[in-house]
Amino acid sequence: MMSEAPDVTTTAGSAGPTTALPRTPFPWGLVRGSTEYARFRLPFLDGALLLSGQDTDDAFALLEMRLGPEQGPDPHLHRDEDEYFHVVEGSYRFRIGDTTLDCGPGDVVKVGRGVPHQLTAGPAGGRHLTMFVPAGPEGWFIEADSLARRGELNLATLGPLFERYGMSQVDSTTTRMI
């Protein structure tokens, strides 16, 4: 018999829940309040780590990201994870291998492990959810944020950072991410 979830009241808009929800395990799952997300900021995006591998027994990680107009990561690949994108707002252009896709709100894109890819937000910017399966690369964003805050995110630190999280840049001699 399943336990019933407690009644959690939320409000619409950016105000979030009417009360702060702690990261609390329940027999039926986990509740995390919006004030508890690990937030990160890089020159090309703002984001939040919604669920880490620690929260999901390494099954997946879930992140929310906002990209500025015409912004996005450099072409890269993940050796050990599939990556899923759900476009929430704005438009995006995805380059996956030799394929180019133009996507908008509601579209979901899967990129298999080992496949080079890049996404770029449209002229108004965009917001999307990213899921890594299994978890692993989410720590990259937190560590990159720390390097950026110290003024140490540069070409010399970017390559080793990608490697630490099982990723490779397609071209490590240039970047638009710093």
Automatic annotation (TrEMBL):
Record's compositionally biased regions (Low complexity): 9-20
Region (Disordered): 1-26
Domain of life according to the entry: Bacteria
Boundaries of every Cupin type-2 domain copy: 64-119
SUPFAM superfamilies cross-referenced by the UniProt entry: RmlC-like cupins
InterPro entries xrefs: Cupin_2, QDO-like, RmlC-like_jellyroll, RmlC_Cupin_sf
Protein name: Cupin domain-containing protein
